[in-house]
Amino acid sequence: MTKAAPARRLNLPLTWLGLMPFTIFILLFLILPTAHIVIGAFQTRDGSFTFQNIIDLNTGTIPSSYWISVKISLASASLGALIGFAMAAAVTFGAVPRWVKSPLLTFSGVASNFAGVPLAFAFLATFGPVGLVTLFLRNNFGIVLQRDLGFNILSFWGLTVTYLFFQIPLMILIITPALEGLRKEWREAAQVLGATSLQYWRMVALPILFPSLLGTFALLFANAFGAVATAIALTGSSLNIVPIQLYAQIRGDVLGNPNLGYAMAFGMIVVTAIANVLYIWLRIRAERWLK
Fold first, then answer.
1. Is 247 contained in some domain?
2. CA 4 to CA 160: how far, in whole Å?
3. Is 8 among the domain residues?
4. E strand or H helix at 67, and its extent?
5. How far is CA 243 from CA 6, 217, 248, 268, 269, in A?
6. Strand runs labelled E in 134-209
7. 142 in a domain, yes or no?
8. How far apart (Å, rounded) are the C-alpha atoms in residues 272 and 278?
9. Which of 67, 179, 217, 291 has its CA 20 to 30 A from that of 252?
């Protein structure tokens, strides 16, 4: 009589155990909440399936809130990409002292994650009605920001300027490796052929960097579009953007329809997902040139 073959043991490398906390965190705080939002966007209050919540996104002030959010995201992403690229190029190619690069990258790593209530308070204390810069300009130069310059921290441009605090550092962190990947041989070859510095950037460097620039712009757009805590803490209900309307909808300040709030959140997920997929695709294309 033959003996039964011993059961095979499932041997997992110990290195996989290190991924368990991260996997559990992603599951609990990303995958499951996202799935709950997507399912809730297609349900009624009693749990039955419906498309009415998606249709209702085109009613009331919801379309205008999406449009304002898109404009703020485009403005902050454009300015953040432009200023961040200029700063990264300056420290990469030696336009400023080399010792500035390390502190700048360190600060960028911290500032790119600085948001929410602390960031809103910092900008209110600086540019608010009784902020440091506001009082300094009024007392020393007689300049009133809102009256003379039309600037109000609780407005479109006020929120855009606030977003720049984390948009510019994020741009610096992402684009610096791409700038460092530009080979010296390319510039030298362009100079040997008689190209000026402007021609080198226009015909060689920028075409190579274009996928990285466009991809980073898409990431900055998604970063601003999904910002919630900073917008709510800074403007409250004075600015009609999607995160504020979503917060009010779920809390019950407007119509008290949580499923419509889920549909609004689902719309935000779709927009940010498209931007992130575009970033990943362009990043892969850029890495082919910079390897």
1. yes
2. 70
3. no
4. helix 62-92
5. 58, 21, 9, 9, 12
6. none
7. yes
8. 10
9. 67
Give the C-alpha separation, 64 to 251, whole Å: 20
Looking at this protein, which amino acid is placed at residue 168?
I
The total number of structural domains in the chain stands at: 1
Q: Which whole-number Å values give the CA distances from 95 to 9, 90, 101, 273, in the listed order?
A: 61, 5, 11, 37
The amino acid occupying position 225 is: F
| 264 closest CA partner among 276, 281, 251, 277 | 251
Residue range of the domain that includes 72:
30-290
Nearest of 155, 160, 161, 152 to residue 131 by alpha carbon: 152
Contacts of 104 (CB under 8 A, 6+ apart): 87, 91, 172
* Neighbour-count burial for 1-39, b at 16+ CB within 10 Å, e otherwise: eeeeeeeeeeeeeeeeeeeeeeeeeeeeeeeeeeeebee
pTM of the model: 0.85
DSSP labels, 95-151: SS-GGGHHHHHHHHHHHTT--SHHHHHHHHHHHSTT-HHHHHHHHHH---IIIII--
Q: At 240, phi and psi to the nearest 5? A: -85, 80
In this predicted model, what pLDDT tens digit does every residue of 144-163 receive, in sequence order? 887 777 788 888 888 999 99
What span, in angstroms and rounded, lies between the C-alpha atoms of 290 and 282? 13
Q: Do residues 80 and 171 touch, judged by C-beta distance below 8 A?
A: yes
CATH number at residue 192: 1.10.3720.10
Each residue's pLDDT tens digit, 20-75: 888 899 999 889 989 999 999 999 888 899 999 999 999 888 899 999 999 999 99
Residue 201 lies in a domain: yes
Q: Structure tokens of 14?
A: 């110990």
